[in-house]
Write a structure and sequence with these properties.
The chain has about 100 residues and is of the alpha+beta class. It has two domains: about 5-50, no CATH class; about 65-105, no CATH class. It has helices at about 20-30, 40-50, 95-105, and strands at about 5-10, 15-20, 65-70, 75-80. A hairpin with a 6-residue loop joins strand 1 and strand 2. The longest helix is centred in the last third of the chain and has 12 residues, at about 95-105. The chain is elongated, with a radius of gyration of 21 Å.
């Protein structure tokens, strides 16, 4: 399949940007269904605002977030699949399971 550069319009700033043949090939190989919506500048700004690293990590409301923290019960360092809310306890997997079992008993 042969690709040619395409001119697209950014949904954020309205400027035209080039969707290169190489980028199209990459999208095709990864089986991405949608063309990019933002120019590189707006995409970089958006990633910075969302606080997601631009290393190919998924972003958006359904992206998985891993946060390093300390368990509020045992003090062990752990990672949790969310961003902790200030003032609310955060538990490691073991303490969370113990609390869950105690609540259902």
């Amino acid at each position: 399949m042969e690709f040619q550069d395409k001119l697209l319009k950014c949904i954020d700033c309205g400027d035209d940007f080039v969707f290169t043949a190489g980028e199209q090939l990459f999208f095709y190989d990864k089986q991405f269904k949608n063309e990019p919506k933002r120019c590189k500048t707006c995409k970089t700004k958006r990633v910075a605002v969302l606080g997601v690293p631009s290393s190919g990590v998924p972003s958006g409301p359904f992206a998985k977030v891993e946060t390093r923290t300390v368990c509020s019960h045992c003090g062990k360092e752990t990672t949790v699949p969310f961003r902790p809310t200030q003032g609310r306890p955060v538990f490691c997997r073991e303490c969370f399971q113990q609390r869950r079992q105690a609540a259902t008993a």
